[in-house]
Amino acid sequence: MEEQVDGSASVDADSEMHSDELGAAIPYRFERTNECAELVAKYSELADGEETEDVVSVAGRLMLLRVQGKVAFGRLVDSSGEIQLFVSAKVAEDFASFSKLSLGDWVGAKGSVVKTRRGELSVKVSEWVLLAKARRSFGDKFHGVSDQDLRFRQRYLDLWANADSRSALQLRSRTISWLRHSLESRGFIEVETPVLHPIAGGATAKPFVTKHNTLDMELFLRIAPELYLKRMVVGGFEKVFEIGRVFRNEGMSPRHNPEFTMLELYQAYADYSDAMALTEELVSGAALETCGSSMIEYQGRELDLTPPWPRETMCSLIAKYAGVDVSPAMEVSEIAGIASKFGIEGEPAWGAGKYVLELYEKTVESELWGPVFVYDFPKEVSPLARPHRNDPDLAERFEAIVAGRELANAFSELIDPQDQRRRFEAQAELKKVGDEEAMSVDEDYLRALEYGLPPTAGIGIGIDRLVMLLANQASIKEVIAFPTLRPEVN
RNA sequence: GCGCCUCUAGCUCAACGGCAGAGCAACGGACUCUUAAUCCGCAGGUUCUGGGUUCGAAUCCCAGGGGGCGCACCA
Fold this sequence. Notes:
Elements: H1 19-25, H2 36-42, E1 51-68, E2 71-77, E3 82-88, H3 95-98, E4 106-115, E5 121-132, H4 148-153, H5 155-161, H6 163-185, E6 189-190, E7 196-197, E8 209-212, E9 217-221, H7 226-234, E10 239-247, E11 259-268, H8 272-291, E12 295-298, E13 301-304, E14 311-313, H9 314-322, H10 332-340, H11 352-363, E15 372-378, E16 394-402, E17 405-412, H12 417-432, H13 443-450, E18 456-462, H14 463-470
The structure holds one RNA strand of 75 nucleotides.
């Protein structure tokens, strides 16, 4: 019997054949000789009406069907592209059944490559086989699916109906693949570090909490792989990277999903200047690879990713956009007075560095389009970054701002275990007074540092945001196959 | 979490206080070169849910739910 998943009327009656009969008729494999796009490229020179003797097999989903008496035209879509099926009652086996196929059915077809009189490259079908029945009907064949809720809740519908949705995810795959190969060719090796962390570290963010039953212990889904990757460097892996999912229990928006993909890389003997050079090479290279140019357009605005990118210190930007000279070396009361003029009301735990960051975020960040490296962050708000070689109140840290948002965060890594302990303790103090995102003291990580971390540069790049940029997508949901949604209620 | 917008047939949308409709899909039929084919026929509804106002509610009001955008938080 046919299965009615939710009792909706959209399931076809399957009047011809019951589901189990249909299932028995479906072959276990299908020998395909060519993808659609291959054929389209190979036979582009065929003249209108020209027929070849070349027999091919194609497979895919039937997206359009025009039956015209004793001849039918179907649009077959596979993951490479599409090609027309030309089916004639004179030539094809079981023409009658073919003409009764529904949109959305999967078929495999064998036949010769021809170009129709009207100039459409086609496979002139001699044999065909049903590979899957679409028991629920395809939507509007012209408008496809546009309801956002439906598109993301039943993403398979969106992917099947909307070529743009497919191409965004294909671009994602090419981007990650290129990054991986690019890093490998630079001598980096890919590693995998734990997703379950006993202490959520490496970033300031609220974690998801879970529990291991046998160990009877609380664990956190990682908010960053940072501290484990630096342990790898301590272990002698001089150039490492990881591309993986991280989880942050925070708000959702067109730029935020609770789980997202981060590229983090660590390079021994390098500093944040090297990291800037590598960041711009990786991002512009990915653009060149996926878009064919390092000059791209994002949401109607031009974006030139060609290196080198401008570099601006945080304090100089505040001077430029807010017109005030501030520094993390100032007395807290003084900078708090300046900040209050911009509507920033501080908290007792804030030092001057925190005020500098807040001023930057309030007055500068939204004005930047980029690409630009904003560098020299206050040390106070950069608990894992090494102090600036020329200024004890700053850290050698930068963020890459591209298309008005943070794309990468990087620093010369803090290598001194004693300093790291003090920074952790300062964070723990913040946590005590209610900052849920503040870090905890990670004794195991401190012990690793005591064995010696060489000078190291580290970079984190938000992969989803990079793909959004390259795919010209405004929402992070577009570049994640299955974005987080509220549960469906009946 | 707060604010604004939105939810009608499988899909895309009308109707905006007065008989719930169209196109596409599906189903039945005609048609030997179509391109969102065309033509004929048939069927399809808890108008997101629950209250309220009204002679009468898809439409107005209240509460709840889903989604979108903005703010906040963050990458």
